[in-house]
Amino acid sequence: MTIESLGSEALERITAAGDAAALEALRVEYLGKQGSVSGLLKTLGKMSPEERQTEGPKIHALRQSVTDALASRKEAIDAAALEQQLASETFDLTLPAPERPRGSVHPVSQVMDELAEIFADLGFAVATGPEVEDDWHNFTALNMPESHPARAMHDTFYFPDRDEEGRRMLLRTHTSPVQIRTMVAEGAPLRIIAPGRVYRSDSDATHTPMFHQVEGLVIDKGIHLGHLKWTLETFLKAFFERDDIVLRLRPSYFPFTEPSVEVDVGWENVGGRRVLGGDGDAPGHGWMELLGSGMVNRRVIEFAGLDPDEWQGFAFGVGVDRLAMLKYGMDDLRAFFDGDIRWLQHYGFSAFDQPTLSAGVGARP
Ligand code: DAH
Q1: Residue 64, Cβ neighbours under 10 Å: how many?
Q2: CB of 138 closer than 6 angstroms to any ligand 1 atom
Q3: What distance in Å separates the CA atoms of residue 251 and residue 161, rounded to the nearest whole number?
Q4: Is 277:244 a contact under the CB 8 Å cutoff?
Q5: Each residue's pLDDT tens digit, 125-150
Q6: Which residue intervals of 173-287 are DSSP H helices?
Q7: How far is the CA of 90 from the centre of ligand 1 (A)?
Q8: Do 212 and 110 meet the contact criterion of CB atoms below 8 Å apart?
Q9: What distance in Å separates the CA atoms of residue 355 and residue 61, rounded to the nearest whole number?
Q10: Is the CB of 215 under 6 A from ligand 1?
Q11: How confident is the model at residue 365 (pLDDT cuts 50, 70, 90)?
């Protein structure tokens, strides 16, 4: 058979192939190890150079045209099969809805929605950042250079690889890198909260390797500690739905704030349980450490590309799981992530319980 007739026969049969199996058989027949086109290719080696010069291009062109014909027929067969499937498949949408809604909103999600609602009212936007971070955003730009002891305290999960810029990759140990990312991307002024997952290699009744934080950041002109205190007080009063939330600011240290303050909240004893509210110094009352905060260190503002003589700000970070436990009375953090349906039914929220300030952020109707 000549190359030309082999070619025209192949194209004719391929075009007529009715399904994927027939097409595959033809592929094997022509292009498989023992196939006729493959056989022709093998003859090239035994030809004289002159013969190869005339026959070579013909044989290669034949192989190409058979390959192309197979591909386009395959596409047509697949498209027809999909068309037929779409035409014959139907969805029965008439199944009755379950008697009671199933599933519930996890308390962590609910609290994050409450935070967004409260802070939106104060003019804060919600910002996000990646959970897989690099050590520049997670540490260096937050004024924790390579040798800083605070790095060791973070029990970081590192990845074996570095990014294109040679930075070590890690699971973010806090939401603070979102401060840097937002300042770099948006400049100033800024008012954001950044809720999200964070990771540390730590595990017991009050620590899980993954947990949640919310970061707050305000950058503007003439910002001072008074703004920080008012903001936290307003937030905590709205969140715990009590007007008598009392804060105590204690000097502390974080590399990314200067000065740094630890914020304690007064609690009182209600039926053997510590409930936030009231003056922690009153008899029978006490103070509970709740969050870290401070005035953003001018080095951090510089790292983020802003001029610290022009822009100042405050920041805070707090555990979202902790806030949920305190507000809704769960005492074991590990249960948050067990996925036990009974726990979720008990502590979870209905999807209809959207937090709103007018209804009291955490109200269950
Ligand atoms: N990033 C800190 C942590 O994970 C929490 C924190 C403290 C955040 C003080 C802040 C801050 O923004 O100002 O322990």
Answers
A1: 11
A2: no
A3: 38
A4: yes
A5: 999 999 999 999 999 999 999 888 87
A6: 177-186, 225-240
A7: 53
A8: no
A9: 69
A10: yes
A11: very low
Round to whole Å and give the CA distance between 183 and 187. Answer: 5
Among the four given CATH numbers 3.40.50.150, 3.40.50.880, 3.30.930.10, 1.10.630.10, the one describing domain 107-347: 3.30.930.10
Distance CA 277, CA 181 (A): 35
Q: How far, in Å, CA of 113 to CA of 129, rounded?
A: 17
Q: Which two tokens stand for residue 4?
A: 């030309």
Which of 40-49, 92-101, 235-244 has the highest average model confidence (pLDDT)? 235-244
Token output for 17? 């192939």
Q: Which residue has the tokens 């209600």?
A: 270
Q: Backbone dihedral region of 137: left (phi > 0), alpha (psi from -120 to 50 degrees) or beta?
A: alpha
Q: Give the H or E element holding residue 318.
A: strand 312-319
> Residue 160 corresponds to which tokens in the numbers above?
């074996």
Q: Put the strands of the sheet holding 158-162 in their side by side order.
A: 132-134, 168-171, 158-162
35: DSSP letter: -
pLDDT tops 90 at residue 198: yes
Instruction: Report the distance separating Cα 118 and Cα 336, nearest Å.
Output: 23
DSSP string, 251-277: EEEETTEEEEEEEEEEEEEETTEEEE-
d(Cα 214, Cα 319) in Å, to the nearest integer?
6
Element (H, E) at 159: strand 158-162
The answer, yes or no, to whether any atom of ligand 1 lies below 6 A from the CB of 176, is yes
With the most atoms of ligand 1 within 8 angstroms of its CB, the residue from 174, 200, 210 to mutate is: 174
CA 337 vs. chain centroid, Å, equals: 17
Phi, psi of 263 (to 5 degrees): -110, 120
202, 315, 345, 353 from 99: Cα distances, Å: 42, 46, 15, 19
pLDDT above 70: residue 364: no
Tokens of 303: 């790292």
Domain extents in the chain: 3-88, 107-347
Q: Is 199 exposed, middle or buried (0-12, 13-18, 19+ CB in 10 A)?
A: buried
